Amino acid sequence: MSNPLDTDAGSELFSSYETELKLVQADLNQKLDQIAESSGEQRKSAIRQSERALDEATELLDQMRMEKQNIPSSARSKVNTRVRNYATDIDEAKRKLRSLSDDRKALFGDRYTDDPQDEHLEQRQQLLSGTDRLERSSARLQESQRIALETEDIGRNTLADLNQQRETITNARGRLLESEGYVDTSIKTLRGMARRMATNRIITIAIITVLILLIFAVIYSKFH
């Protein structure tokens, strides 16, 4: 089995598919070993289970190939290597299962014949395998729809939060403009007060100057 390097890249869904694929591969290898060590009904049961596991592994690999498109380009090369390794493992398992399935003597034991009913049995097994595969595909489709709905809800909530933040910013901007108006009014008032204070100061200085001149005039008149 492949042992790809773990990376932090990839979507959560891709990682979920990969984890599930590893479990299916481990189960598939165990079933293939059971086929090689058994015969008769036990062997046929192990082959059917291996076929279902192989179908499931193939579906998971297809899902990973689609999901890897959502992975950033900078990390996609490592992910591509991992996907190729999994594909190689699955192809090898297919060849091994085909080889084990062709050994009809071991499959049917002492009851092996060329009876056409064996072909009918194989067709029924393939039909059951196809039904199981369809059910698993439907389950994965439902899971993908659930994730899509959750993503849509998250997007809707995010949009609502952004709208609320925009309203908050708009209100804050309005209050800021209003505050700027108050500041302008205050500045004008302070400037008016400063002008009045300057005028009063000039008047006070003028009065003091006049008084001083009058005092000097009185003193001068007394001595002359």
Automatic annotation (TrEMBL):
SMART domains: t_SNARE
PANTHER family: VESICLE TRANSPORT THROUGH INTERACTION WITH T-SNARES HOMOLOG 1A, VESICLE TRANSPORT V-SNARE PROTEIN VTI1-RELATED
Domain T-SNARE coiled-coil homology: 126-193
Cellular component, GO annotation: cytosol; endoplasmic reticulum membrane; ER to Golgi transport vesicle membrane; Golgi apparatus; late endosome membrane; SNARE complex
Keywords, alphabetical: Coiled coil, Membrane, Protein transport, Transmembrane, Transmembrane helix, Transport
Protein name in the entry: V-snare-domain-containing protein
Organism annotation: Aspergillus ellipticus CBS 707.79
Lineage top rank: taxon: Eukaryota
Chief subcellular location: membrane
InterPro entries recorded: GOSR2/Membrin/Bos1 (IPR027027), SNARE (IPR010989), T_SNARE_dom (IPR000727), v-SNARE_N_sf (IPR038407), Vesicle_trsprt_v-SNARE_N (IPR007705)
Signal sequence segment: none
UniProt similarity note: Belongs to the VTI1 family.
Transmembrane segment boundaries: 202-221
Subcellular compartments: Endomembrane system
Membrane protein topology class: Single-pass type IV membrane protein
Gene Ontology process terms (BP): Golgi to vacuole transport; intra-Golgi vesicle-mediated transport; intracellular protein transport; macroautophagy; retrograde transport, endosome to Golgi; vesicle fusion with Golgi apparatus
GO MF term set: SNAP receptor activity; SNARE binding
